[in-house]
Amino acid sequence: MSEINSPKKPKHRNNLFPEAIKPYSDYNSHKPKPNSHSNLNGKANGNANANGKTGQSSDSKLSSSSLSSSVNTRNSQKIKDFIEQLYQLKPDQTILGDKANQLEFTNADPPNGLITKTYLKSLASIPQAWVEEVKSKHSLAVSFINTEVLADSQKDEEPESASSKHGAVIIGGAENDYTWLALISTRLFRKAGGVLPIEVMLPTKEDYLKDREICDLYLPQLNAKCVIIKDLLDASTATNAELDDDLNKYIWNNFTLIKRELAILLSRFENVLFLSPENVMLKPMEYAIFDKQFYKDFGLFVWGDYGARTTLPAFYEIADLEVKNAKTSVYGLPLTEELISKSAKLTSEELSDGVNFHDLENSLPYKQSDASELIIDKKQHLGTLLLSLYYNLNGPDAYYVLLTGRFDGAHGAKETILAAAHVLSKQYYLINSEVESNGYWYDDEFKGVSMMQFDPIVDYYSYEAFIDKFSRKEGYEVSYNKYQRWLKESSERRSPLFLNINNPPLKPIELIQQGTVVKENGDRVRLIADTSYFDAEFETDIWRVMNDYICHLSLECSYVKTWFGKGNSKKRDAFCKGDIKEHLLWVSSLGSTADADLDV
Asked: Where is the composition biased (Low complexity) (predicted)?
C-alpha cells in the first residue's frame, strides 16, 4: 500500500491554532468606505466524550431535555405571523408564467476576464412586465419588513443569560444523513474547545424518531439538543384560519430552500453561529466573540465562495438600489476612502465595459457567498433573515435567476442572506481571506474534499495591516492577488476557523467501501492534507470519533441502519474489525505522535 500525500510538519507544532493576532492599530483607523465592498453596507460546557449508553430505551417517550424549549415555541408564533404576511406578497404566477414574459438566456464568456455591466445584461433578456411584477411585490415586502417587523424587534424583552443568548445552530435530519453529520460536527466542535450550546434543528418528528438515540443520548452529553421545526410551526396558527393549511403546505413544499433561515429564526439564541452539518470547527468558538465591538458593529459575518458574482443588473432595478460610479473595490478587495479619492474618475464607457460591475459602489460584493456557515445577530438582522426567507420562497420563480444570472438559478439560495442585508442597508462583513481548498492528490490529479474558511477577527486586522503598510507606498497599486499572496506569506495573518468537509462528507462507510480513501489496488489516501496549522493527527481524531460511535458505542441511527441494519450485525462487526480499524491505524501511523497500541 502506498502513501499518496505525505504529511509535512506544521510550522506551529505547539500552537496549531494561534489566537487572533494582536491588533496592528485601532479598529476604526482604516475603516473602508461605507456602502463599498468594505462590506460596511450602510445606512455548561458539554462533556466532549461520548459515554456508554444509559437511560432511555429506543422506544421511550420523547426526551424533554433533548427537544425544543418554550423559548423556541414563543418565537415560532411570531415567525409564522411574519411568513404569513410575506406569503401574501408572492409575485403573481399568471404574470411570470405568461408566454410573453419568459426570460431568455445566453452562455457568453466574460470579455477580458471582466464581469462588466454590459456582459451581465447580456446574460438574460427579461421582459419589462416580469420586472415590474417582481419589483412591485418586492417593494411591498421591504416596506412590511421596515415598518412592522423592525418596529416589533425594537420592543424590550426579558434579559437572557449568555448561555441562552449565544449559541450554535446545525441543520439535522435523516435526509442526506444530516443528523449523523451533525453529531460528528458537534463532537469535533467540543474537541476543538468550543463551549457554545448547540441546537440541532430537525425538519420533522419522523427525523427525530429515526435518530432518537443521537437526540436523546449523545447530543445531550455534548451540551446539545434536537429541535423539531415542524412541531414549532404546527403549534402556531395563521391569523387567517382559512389560510393556515395553504401556508403550511407552502412552507413545507419550500422547506429545503428556507431551512437555514427557519433554523436560525426558530432557535432560542439571539446571536447564532450557523453551521452546515458538514462543517468542522478548527479552534475554540467562545462567547467572547459576540462581545467584541467589531461583531456588534456588523452583526453579520459572511464567508466567500470560490466564484465571482454574476448578479444581474435587473436585481438592482427590482430592489431599487442605485449602483454608483465610483470603484470601491478591486476584485472584491475593499478600498479605503483615501484610495477611492485617488482613483481616476471612470468614464461612462469604462463603467459599462471597463470595470467589474460588482466592484462599483453600492453593488453586492464581487465574490459569491458560501452558505455553509455564518454568524448573525438575530435582533439586529431580523429583517435580513425574513427578506432572505422571502427571496428563497420565491427563488425558483424569480430571485435565483436574478442573483446568479443562470437560467437554472443554481446555487442562488446561498446568495440571499447577503443580498437581503444589502437591500435593507444593514451592515455586514464579508471575510477577505479567500476560501482555501483542501483535499488529496492521487494519480497526478487533485481531488478537492473540503473548504477552509478563516477567522473574521484575524481577517480584519490582517486587512488593516496590509492597507496600513502598502496603501501609501509610492508606486504600489493595491490588488486582490497581492493581498492574498501577502496573507499566505505568514501563517499568522490567517487563522482557520472552519473546515467544510462536503465532497464527500464524513460518512465513513461510504468513504472506505466505495473507493474514496481505499482504492481498488489497495492504495490509501488521506482526505485532509497537511497545512501549517494541522497535520495527520487532525484527520486521525476525526476517524477516531467516527469509529467510537459506530464500533465502540454501537450507535443506532438512520445512517448506520441503512448500511448494517439494526443491532450489532455481522456487517457492522466486519466493518469495525476490518475496514475502519485498518484505515484508522494507517492514518494514525502518519502523525508525529502515532501510537502503535492505538485502541480501535
From this structure: 41-70
